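Fig. S4 source data, part A: sequence.
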Amino acid sequence: MLAEFGYDEARGFPARVDVAPRAVRTPVPAGDPCHDIEAGHLVLNLGEEVRGADSPYGRYMTTFRKSLRDPVVSDAGVALNMHEVEAARRRHEKAGR
């Protein structure tokens, strides 16, 4: 499994572990006006949310997902949400539908 992530003997693993270039981020330069830094930490969220607290869409998606009685299947054929599907099936049977 580790080979699928780029860690295998051909690349010198486990004797040498190189971090993928995309995993290394350059630091934010001091005084950069495009970034907010507080107490030495980069502030990523200034209180703005993807959805407002009163938005119904997040709750509707959760309700929809938890009501699925057929699994979501990955390209590899793996059922990704069987614990939710089994719970939905039990709720459906209990309701006598």
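Fig. S4 source data, part B ends here. The chain has a mean pLDDT of 77.
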